[in-house]
Structure formats: C-alpha cells, structure tokens
Amino acid sequence: MTSNTAVLWGTNIQTNTVQIKLKEFINNFVEEKEIDQDGGDEQFARVPYYIEKLKEVRDLELTVLDVDCSHIFAYDPQLYRQMEDYPTDLIPIFDLVVS
Q1: In this structure, what CATH number is given to the domain that contains residue 58?
Q2: CB 28 within 8 A of CB 48
Q3: Domains in the chain: how many in total?
Q4: DSSP per residue over 29-72, as a string?
Q5: pLDDT in tens for each of the 99 residues of the chain?
Q6: Does the pTM of the predicted model rise above 0.90?
Q7: What is the CA radius of gyration of the chain?
Q8: Is 50 part of any domain?
Q9: Among candidates 44, 46, 58, 49, which has minimal Cα distance to 27?
Q10: Is 33 within the bounds of a domain?
C-alpha cells in the first residue's frame, strides 16, 4: 500500500492534515464577545474571529496576521502541541494556509 501523503521529516505529522486543521481553525474559531443589551440580558456574538482579522488585514493593507496561540490551544490542543514542538515546520504551512 502506498500513500501520496507528505509527512514532515522526523515526525508522523501529515502536512495535508495540518493544512486542513489550520484552515478549519482560521475559518471557525470563535471568540465569544458579550453584547450590551438595554434590558440587562447578556448575549454573545459568535463571529469567526480570524475571518474578521483577515478582513482587517486586507482593508488596512497589512502584511501580518497576529495569531493568539491560546486560541489554537482552545480550538485544538493537539494542533497547538504540534505547533509548539515543530514551529519551524508548521509556521510556514500556517503562512501558506492564510495566504
């Protein structure tokens, strides 16, 4: 049995799986924000955080997207550990996914 899946050298991390996880994180991570209501009811906005940040980057013509690693940990602890253990391998993949 052969596989066309690329694996990061010296690890068991499959690059296509990491790309999918990173894309899902960017598209789906939600930071709950409390919305003020006149009646005292608390409501929370559920907007994809990094989609909004990417719009800001585009609108302001910036070249940097700041990513809070605690967001990665909250979204996917395994992905966070991989980023922590292999940053020189995973950060370029993250850059590619965001681009």
Answers
A1: 3.30.1640
A2: yes
A3: 1
A4: -B--EEE--TTS--EEE--BHHHHHHHHHHHTT-S-----HHHH
A5: 345 568 777 677 888 999 999 999 999 999 876 655 555 556 666 789 999 999 999 999 999 999 999 999 999 999 999 999 999 989 999 999 998
A6: no
A7: 17
A8: yes
A9: 49
A10: yes
